[in-house]
Design a protein that fits this description.
The protein has 186 residues and is mainly α. The protein has a domain of 88 residues: Alpha Horseshoe (Serine Threonine Protein Phosphatase 5, Tetratricopeptide repeat). The protein has nine helices and no strands. The radius of gyration is 17 Å and the shape is elongated.
Length: 186
């Protein structure tokens, strides 16, 4: 059991659990990550905290996806998105919608995945100073989708944009990946 009594309230306790789960996930401790995320989901549900629940569901979906359980991840992301819409953070919504799009794309639903990516990109682009890496990642996802559909011109334009965004963000791996895709689309 995870102690939460030192935290101010249920929303803060859920966020603390999500952060611990993310840390465990980053250090490849999936069992611990899942325990934290499941506890966060249960706590948010028990205290009727919809925005905190959205964060916890997203976190648990990430862990399920890591485990190859896309069907469960899909269900969790689908539950999280409408909760995110009730909040006031367009980046949390964009990030969650983008991840929903990833699972849909992985499951072969390219039409719905495209709608998710388009929404995420619109949310990022509507903001005067969106997180550069998140925008680059969203453009990358759309480029992958276009390339999968053999929409070469659209894919090339998106890969060029992604490469520039990754360059601005200082992510050399993203620059290299984008360049490799552009080379393959010649």
């Amino acid at each position: 059991m995870v102690a939460t009594e030192a935290i101010d309230g249920p929303r803060e306790a859920v966020e603390s659990l999500v952060q611990r789960g993310m840390a465990a996930r980053r250090t490849r401790r999936p069992g611990e990550a899942m325990r934290h995320m499941k506890t966060a989901v249960a706590l948010a549900r028990a205290h009727d905290e919809p925005i905190a629940l959205a964060r916890a569901l997203h976190g648990r979906a990430n862990v399920e996806r890591d485990r190859g359980r896309r069907d469960i991840a899909l269900r969790l992301y689908r539950e999280a998105v409408p909760l995110c819409r009730r909040g006031d953070d367009p980046f949390v919504l964009a990030h969650t919608v983008r991840h929903l799009g990833d699972v849909l794309r992985e499951l072969g639903d390219l039409g719905e995945a495209e709608l998710c990516y388009a929404e995420a990109l619109a949310l990022y682009r509507a903001h005067p100073s969106p997180p550069m890496l998140d925008v680059a990642n969203a453009v990358r996802r759309m480029a992958i989708l276009r390339e999968t559909r053999d929409e070469r011109e659209e894919a090339r334009a998106l890969w060029r944009e992604a490469r520039e965004l990754y360059r601005e963000a200082g992510i050399e791996g993203g620059v290299s990946e984008s360049s490799a895709h552009l080379e393959g689309l010649r």
